[in-house]
Amino acid sequence: MRPWHLWLGFIPFTQAQATVGGIPAPPGVAFLYNANITVGLTVDVGAIPAGNISVIPVIGGALTGPKISGKILAIGADWGLSTPQGFYYSDMRAQIRTMDNANIYVQMTGLMQGNNGVVYVRTTFQTGHKDYWWLNYAFTFGTMRASGTGYVVDMWYLTA
Question: Which UniProt key words apply to this protein (predicted)?
Answer without folding.
Answer: Signal
